[in-house]
Automatic annotation (TrEMBL):
The lineage of its organism: Bacteria, Pseudomonadati, Pseudomonadota, Gammaproteobacteria, Methylococcales. Its EC number is 1.2.1.79. CDD domains: ALDH_SSADH1_GabD1. It holds the Pfam family Aldedh. It comes from Candidatus Methylocalor cossyra. Keywords: NADP, Oxidoreductase. This is Succinate-semialdehyde dehydrogenase [NADP(+)]. Belongs to the aldehyde dehydrogenase family.
Amino acid sequence: MDYRSQNPATGAIIGTYPAWDDHRLEQALSRVEAVRPEWQGMSVTDRGALLRGLAVRLRAGGEGYARLITEEMGKPIREARAEIEKCALGCEFFAERGPELLADEPVASDARTSYVAWQPLGTVLAVMPWNFPFWQVIRFAAPALVAGNCALLKHAPNVPRCAEALEALFLEAGFPRGVFQWLPITHEQAEGIIADPRLHAVTVTGSPRAGRRLAALAGAALKKTVLELGGSDPFVVLEDADLERAVAVAVTARFQAGGQSCIAAKRFILVAAIADEFLARFQRRVEALTVGDPSREDTDLGPLARADLRATLHRQVEDSIRAGAQPLTGCRKLDGPGFFYMPSILDQVGPGMPAHDEELFGPVAAIVRVRDEDQALAAANRHRYGLGGSVWTADRARGERFARRLESGLAFVNGLVKSDPRLPFGGVKESGHGRELGALGLREFCNAKCVWIG
């Protein structure tokens, strides 16, 4: 299996990277095992200083890294710049808070002294996706590394230049060679090293199918896992919502990154009292989006990342229409080169349709109509995924009650569902388990060691 960099806006092949043979993989594993004691022996403060240096380099080269993202996976350049800035902020957060969050935690007991010591597990294999090719890696690596772990990255095969740039960034920032390594390896090789005693944990961001497979292998080897899998986030609009604000955020929530985000709003659950008005406003804004070259400053929506992803999305749309969904706008491929798909809205979506039951990983909004708040909550929770969700209402207390009843790892009231370095990120049900980011994410790959002194 080769790693292939292809511009999704034109279809042009930029370059290929042959997968490593087993000998090169073994060299990488030996390298990380050799450097691990040195890395774990550094203070949290010193490791954090390296992360701060990484943030400086991210910002200094930000325009180049953003254009690399845009060329390799098709994200509009404005969004790519924002992704790089978010990476820098994430590095700075864990550099600043690491010493405090990893400090020994005193616990009163029958001992003279007892406490919890947060110690690194060792080396973590990260299987990462292409949709946020820098941020997905940094949001795992920053907390894992500041905690004293080493990181092995098995990145998506269609973003090898991003992976290569990330590894170079860590080296240029002064991280010891081997602490962070990109492994251009096959799926079979990645599965094979999970049982290796030099590997101590696995984190996966991807599909439920990939998560199940890798988690089963990790479980057989008794290795810790964090799984951040798919999502079909509900965007619930109640009758007292500020519709102008809700519609504006709805467009961003569904169509940023070309709709290719696990926490994108995918099911728009509208109560009857406002459904028609919301939908009319929403459709006008969706039809005004500029689709085209993602390197242009005025582009709102670029291509999908790969041809097969577009084909899958279009099949889901067509199957949903055959099952009774009503196409309001878009719902077709854009003619010409590249993997473009028109921003789309499907109305009258319900259970049994792919647009409802599956994850639509692309620029298609599914409209689900309900009678009232109770039906809205039932519809929001009636899904195998449980990553994020939002509710829109003028009554803050009502919104908070609704959010607490959502079966999800993230619940937002009158706001865009997003990841934030300060807050835990992750899901329930088939969206996975474990947390990234925040204090919980920092401690996921730590041994919470009890120390008792009599």
